[in-house]
Design goal:
Distance between the termini: 21 Å
Number of strands: 6
Strand content: 5-15%
Shape: globular
Oligomer: single chain
Number of helices: 9
Order of helices and strands: EHEHEHEHEHEHHHH
């Protein structure tokens, strides 16, 4: 990142994962067993406390894992932000947060941020996948040294049945999800797919063990139509 911090390329998104019947704790345990060291939560997800407890009991040192959490728009005022941040630290049982994001940004926030304050953020997390490649945003962020991170990489599962992606998957004897994740990795784009299934966690990790030929990368690039499944805050940059 532009502040010298190292951020993993593959993380685990924790949106809507609860600890009902111990499910959240098991999810984090399985992820750690599969080698995950990057977890993405938020105050809005209501699982910061569960994540903190799971990581505290893991036996790992704090510097061995990377945690993202997010500030709700209700707390975007100086003293509210400070108080919210320390409440989140307490819930997470941590001395620091690796990445703290605004959840979520208002339209025009990037230009206004650096024009008014001179501050250049380290990361901009947005919906991104082969159907929504965020080319304009990525170009602007690259010019300023901002890493663009992807959530919703499978477009809520819709991309997993795409015939073009399926054909490429058969060529490499991989799953469509692995092809999509590999598309991100070869562009050095961090991505946080969500899953509670250990087998899928393993498959996602295994997307790092092969390389897509350039012709297949170009085919995946050609799928872009800047179409997503979530409402976008970027009416203007």
């Amino acid at each position: 990142l532009n502040n010298g911090v190292e951020m993993p390329l593959l993380g685990l998104g924790l949106f809507r994962i609860t600890n009902e019947n111990g499910g959240f704790s098991q999810c984090i345990h399985d992820a750690l067993e599969e080698g995950y060291r990057f977890f993405d939560t938020a105050e809005y997800y209501e699982n910061e406390k569960d994540l903190g407890e799971a990581l505290a009991s893991s036996g790992l040192h704090r510097e061995e894992y990377f945690v993202t959490t997010k500030l709700t728009n209700d707390n975007i005022k100086l003293h509210d932000t400070r108080n919210a941040f320390f409440r989140q630290l307490e819930r997470l049982k941590m001395d620091y947060i690796d990445l703290y994001l605004i959840h979520w940004p208002v339209k025009g926030h990037l230009n206004r941020l650096w024009e008014c304050s001179g501050i250049v953020p380290a990361v901009d997390q947005v919906e991104m996948h082969p159907y929504k490649a965020q080319l304009k945003l990525r170009k602007i962020c690259a010019e300023r040294g901002i890493v663009v991170e992807a959530y919703g990489p499978f477009m809520q599962g819709e991309l997993l049945s795409d015939s073009v992606i399926g054909e490429i998957a058969r060529k490499y004897h991989k799953s469509p999800a692995q092809i999509i994740l590999r598309w991100f990795f070869q562009q050095k784009i961090p991505v946080i797919p969500k899953t509670v299934t250990r087998e899928r966690m393993m498959q996602n990790r295994n997307a790092m063990d092969f390389v897509l030929e350039e012709v297949d990368m170009e085919i995946l690039h050609s799928l872009n139509k800047e179409q997503g499944s979530f409402p976008s805050p970027y009416e203007v940059i």
